[in-house]
Amino acid sequence: MQWPADRPLDQILAEMAEIGFLGIEGARDYFGQSAQLRVLLADAGMEMTAGTYAANWFDKEWRPRELEGLRHSAEFYAGVGADYVVIGSLGSPQRFLTAGHPRSSLTEGLSDYQWEFFAETISMAGEICLDEFQLQLVFLNRAGSFVESREEIDRFVSLTDPQTVSLAADTGQLFYGGVDPTEFFERNVERIRYVHLKDVDPDIYEQNIADGGSYRDFVRMEGFTEVGSGAVDFEAVIEILKGGGYDGWLVIEQDYTSRDPAVAAGASLEHVNSLLGV
């Protein structure tokens, strides 16, 4: 959930705690200020669910810089109590324009060589996180990136080491990328270690695709809606996770809302709690 950029983090954390949230993801604005962030989290009774880091992982010349950046981020997040680092692949401008559209309209993806190098680099990143910082690397599928469609996500899963690279499954990103979230969770529940619960307004989705809109257009139109008010079958997703013994975080996420973020987040949390029987 995105709170206004000018709202202080201590106020955001207090609002989240009052609603009933237990943790927050990211807080990259405090990078390099781990002591201050630890105090803010402790005062609010909140945890850092995970750190975040995104890069282009498929170019040989970029690898040293990407892994060095990862080390800095992992050190920071380990220092504020995170157990996971959510890793993503930076989006492509052209893929943002065609994300969610029929597969035939997607711009060309990675070459076989790039895929092999990409998977090797991510596996190395997973080893760094685990061996040096005791953090679990979880990879996030993202519309607009080169790991968006079912074929691309399946290829990523098949090429990476399950011992060091797990999945951060995002229900809304899956839906937007043309992947059935329920089916995806059924097939990959043993690999999923971190979950973003994000819902999709089906009418806005269909209209945006029909109009040839981009992923960013969809976000601005509030296509990602409160959890429980859209098309994703969260009851089925949570039952799959329960059956698979999942014991990680369920992170409620909504990229943009014109409503008061506390109100929108509260509605989402209420729905999730009802499914969990809380």
List the helices and strands and how they pair.
Blueprint: H1 9-19, E1 23-25, H2 34-44, E2 47-55, H3 63-79, E3 84-89, H4 93-98, H5 112-133, E4 136-140, H6 150-159, E5 165-170, H7 171-176, H8 181-188, E6 192-197, E7 199-200, H9 202-210, H10 215-220, E8 224-225, H11 234-243, E9 250-252, H12 261-276
Helix pairs in contact: 1-2, 3-5, 8-11
Mean pLDDT value: 93
Shape: globular
Beta-strand residue percentage: 15-25%
Total number of beta strands: 9
Main sheet attributes: strand count, strand direction, barrel closure? 7 strands, parallel
Helix content: 40-55%
Unreliable segments of 5+ consecutive residues? none
Which value, in Å, is the CA radius of gyration?
A: 18 Å
Secondary structure class reads alpha/beta
End-to-end gap? 21 Å
Number of helices: 12
Give the neighbour order of strands across the main sheet. 1-2-3-4-5-6-9
Order of helices and strands: HEHEHEHHEHEHHEEHHEHEH
Please give a structural write-up:
The chain is α/β, with parallel strands linked by helices and about 280 residues long. It has helices at about 10-20, 35-45, 65-80, 95-100, 110-135, 150-160, 170-175, 180-190, 200-210, 215-220, 235-245, 260-275, and strands at about 25, 45-55, 85-90, 135-140, 165-170, 190-195, 200, 225, 250. The chain has a 7-stranded parallel β-sheet. Strands 7-8 form a two-stranded antiparallel sheet. Strand 1 (about 25), helix 2 (about 35-45) and strand 2 (about 45-55) form a beta-alpha-beta unit. The two termini are about 20 Å apart. The mean pLDDT is about 95.
